[in-house]
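Project standup — Tuesday

K.O.: blocked on the structure for the chain from last sprint. Re-posting the sequence here as requested.
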Amino acid sequence: MRVLLVRHGNGPTDDRVVTWARAAGYDLDIRRPFQGDLLGEVEDDIAGTVIYGGMFNVYETDKNPFLNEEYRWIRACLQADLPILGICQGAQQIAHELGAWAGPREGGDHEFGYHRVDPTPEAGDFLTESLVFTQAHFHTFDLPDGAVRLARNDAYENQAFRYGKNVYGTQFHPEVTPDGFRRWQPSSVELQGLPGVQSIEEQNRLMALHDPAQDAWFRGFLDRFLGPAA
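H.V.: unblocked you, prediction finished:
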């Protein structure tokens, strides 16, 4: 069985989805539509798909026509009842495909660093307590019709949702390891001083405090989301 990963960059593939999936016995099928990769059809050997974050505006299909291929893939996965996880841009894409608005919020508040996320009453075992997660965004999304809000915080009402039984979107980045976040930190230098952008010193302090719990939570989520390969 394989997990198809839709990536929006060329960085190292050392995130927690990759390490978990390999340990669980899955083959990884990494595609980069922004470089021309096609995503094919939903075949019997695909256990699930993960749509990663990125720097692309999810509504700019004219400017970035490869997004149309990703939306076709999302539609096919929804029709096939395939497990889907969308992370940050990926969550926005799922919401957008389901008819909800996604884009930059008026006022331009960011979340860059490590920010608390709270479970909603409907969260169930998705999130049983408030945790601090990696964040890197200023876009957001409305909750699609029929979706269940699973997590929120004071800055952004929609931090995670479930659609149906096996489609999830997270605005936060539980897949990012400390090494991965350190590769992102230089991009926050020009954002320093904006609301929601932590200093690099604060990012590092909170990373050391909270990354172990984030890692444990995400591994538990993936265990429930896909489980080990048959």
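K.O.: great, moving the ticket to review. The longest helix spans residues 200-225. Helices lie at 16-23, 66-79, 89-97, 178-184, 200-225.
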